[in-house]
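User: Teach me something about this protein's shape.
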Amino acid sequence: MNEIDKSKLPVHVAIIMDGNGRWAKKRGFPRVQGHQKGTETVREVVKASREIGIKWLTLYAFSEENWKRSDLEISALMNLLEKFLRQELKEMTEKGIRLRAIGRLHKLPASTRELLLKTIDETSGGTQMTLTLALSYGGRQEILDALRKVGTMVEKGLLRAEEIEKRHLTASLYEPEMPDPDLLIRTSGEYRISNFLLWEIAYTELYITPTLWPDFSKEEYLKAIAEFQRRERRFGAAE
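Assistant: First, the predicted structure itself:
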């Protein structure tokens, strides 16, 4: 904590939470036990983010591609999500944490979607931090959905094709007010973006750690923040 400069914090941290299954396999546990342990890490990282002053935190919780997993694992993940929402509602409202969600939320089970939207509504007054869950999310899918919105504007005569600018696409993303991530953390040592926030991470700093998500501690999270603060961000400008 002593290494963190509160005046140079990333505004938005995004995390690819990878390694739950491998964590469980190494220990001879069922995969769902890895996901259960991973929710504890979520709580620790959310708490640490709020304590140091991170304003936006986005977690890759369930990708569009994750629908290919077994029905048993998907059901377990949805149950864990519902349990997390119920358990954390009081904490989020008391600590001023606003919950948001991005992705093709209509694909979520009805009970999960209903509880998610209810929690989003009940935390909407939070001003200390915005916690965004990427659910049934894919970066390419988000861009496609945004393009369809822009195309509809063109069809209706509200916008001409030659007038389309970056801002039109940005305004059509799932969460237009969300700032681009300053820092993207990926656990488990994989060097992939995995279809996450493809439009938004054009100039995002990347931090890769071999640590599996269930073992990702507050100390390592702060280490990633400190590493970010040591980097020089030029956004394409000359040195």
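Now, about its shape. The CA atoms of residues 54 and 119 lie 21 Å apart. The chain is about 45% helix and 15% strand. If you'd like, I can walk through any region in more detail.
User: That's plenty for now, thanks!
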